[in-house]
Amino acid sequence: MSEKPLTVMVVDDHPMWRDAVARDLGAAGCEVVATAGDGPQAVRRARAARPDVLVLDLNLPGLPGAEVCRQLAGDVKVLVLSASGEQEDVLEAVKAGATGYLVKSASAEELVAAVWRTADGDAVFTPGLAGLVLGEFRRLATASAPGTADEADVPRLTGRETEVLRLVAKGLTYRQIADRLVISHRTVQNHVQNTLGKLQLHNRAELVRYAIESGLDAE
User: Fold this and answer.
1) pLDDT at residue 137 is higher than 70
2) How far is CA 71 from CA 64, 74, 84, 96, 179, in A?
3) For residues 29 and 47, what is the distance between their CA atoms, to the nearest angstrom?
4) What is the pLDDT of residues 93-107, one digit of tens each?
5) Coil/strand/helix, residue 75
6) For the segment 53-64, what is each residue's pLDDT rounded down to a tens digit?
7) Helix, strand or coil for residue 192?
8) Residue 217 class from Cβ within 10 Å (0-12 exposed, 13-18 middle, 19+ buried)?
9) Which 8-state DSSP code applies to residue 163?
10) DSSP label of 102
11) Cβ distance 209 to 140 under 8 Å?
């Protein structure tokens, strides 16, 4: 019995580009369950179709892509596919909940690989952008005043959860973490999900920021 296909939704206001992306993903074995050409339509259709991954342009009529991402990020993994590689756009998308960010100069093969990695929970970025995001999180962490919360209020992570979190903060993919710790990819995902639940965070970007604020990326 075959596994359930990876379901994807493509959002872009340019019909030819939108159709080309949908066609490339379909040819790679993904099931394109919906498309949309503006922000409000994207939110409605994504909530109805519930795709595994939303491939989202930022420049949309009716509702900006970052706001679409903000409204949907808790329900679907979002991979931004944008013509812009500007720092402001990248950081806004990540802060809105995007799992990854590719610029449109990426090849079809890179896009397909990014969609599958996004579905696996990996943070995927066009080369150079990951460092930009981590750098911004470090800046924010340095600018933040140290917390004064009682240690009893801080969620306790297991040794393995802390180890996985440290490697996530260093930018390793789940598969790289699995290889490093000699555990399965699924076990890594489970540790990340447990950690997200304990820390009351919503996505990998928030998890990386927490890890950096805690100094785990430097250990």
Assistant:
1) no
2) 11, 7, 21, 8, 34
3) 22
4) 888 888 888 999 989
5) coil
6) 999 999 999 999
7) helix
8) buried
9) H
10) E
11) yes
| Lookup: tokens for 210 | 């927490």
Sequence-ordered alpha helix ranges (H) in 99-203: 108-119, 129-143, 159-169, 174-181, 185-199
Among candidates 69, 95, 63, which has minimal Cα distance to 81? Answer: 69
Distance, in Å, from the CA atom of 186 to the CA atom of 70, rounded to the nearest integer, reads: 27
- State which H helix or E strand residue 95 sits in: helix 87-95
* pTM of the predicted model as reported, rounded to 2 decimal places: 0.67
Cα 24 to Cα 150: distance, rounded to the nearest angstrom: 51
The first and second tokens of residue 61, run together, are: 């009529």
DSSP string, 6-73: PEEEEE-S-HHHHHHHHHHHHHTT-EEEEEESSHHHHHHHHHHH--SEEEE-S--SSS-HHHHHHHHT
Smallest CA-to-CA distance from 54 within 43, 38, 67 is with 43
